[in-house]
Write a structure and sequence with these properties.
Number of domains: 2
Number of strands: 3
Structural class: mainly alpha
Strand content: under 5%
CATH topology of the largest domain: hpI Integrase, Chain A
Amino acid sequence: MNYKESFLQYLKIEKRYSQHTVRSYLNDLDQFYSFLTSLELPEDPIPVTSGDIRSWIVSMLENNYSTVSVHRKISCLRVFYRYLRKEGIIKNDPLEKIVLPKRKKTLPVFVEEDAINNLLDNYSFGDGFAGIRNRTIIELLYTTGMRRSELIGLRDNDLDLAEGSVKVTGKRNKQRIIPLVKPFIKRLDEYIKIRNANVETLNNGWFFITDKGNKLYDKYVYNIVNSYLAMVTTIEKKSPHILRHTFATHMLNRGADLNSIKELLGHANLSATQIYTHNTFEKLKKVYKQAHPRA
């Protein structure tokens, strides 16, 4: 029996995980199976022991995987083995006694406010469809904090420009409403007009489309964001998720309360949002050291 394939179907159908999440689980399981093969063990999850999993953890750390990556991959295995136990395929879970290495606290990377303003206010994206679309994508990610997958999944009827809001479908199909600022509403309206004038066939009502009128995909959005952020910042990571971090950090720096940011980001609990307070605290420490006469 192909336990991996049935598990992925379980994630898609019962758990309603996004394609991106399912793909990540598949990659992690494939890597684990490859490790079993390297130990000359069968690609079968049933006979796997706690010792085999500890060996995988050691192997990943020796190959310079970050503790965050190790935690994520073992988290995938935990879900997999809970599924096998739930289905009655195994009796004992080999991960029950697994102790993971402590995570190193890393602050979320973000783009400075001046750099974002410089990009959106002073840089010319061009007057054609591609330029206006690219600018709209970057500004929407930054002004709402939505995820890349949420942006890709937007349909025309998710935006209410008259009301000034956008409906976002997040993880596990949870929906939330995010308000839009007035100046940006005009830009969205401009994008819609030029899109409809330049693309002959709109594909199933997707709000953002490629130059050929097709639905966007992950790499397409990544390339857009990466290329434009490279013009204004030297940070190593320039992914769409960095704009999500930037949104949350800038909101906190300007006085937004943590619960509001949690709701806007679509976090399930406050602990996921609290990490952004560290960035704010680091900024506060810097100001203190520069300004206080005894610092």
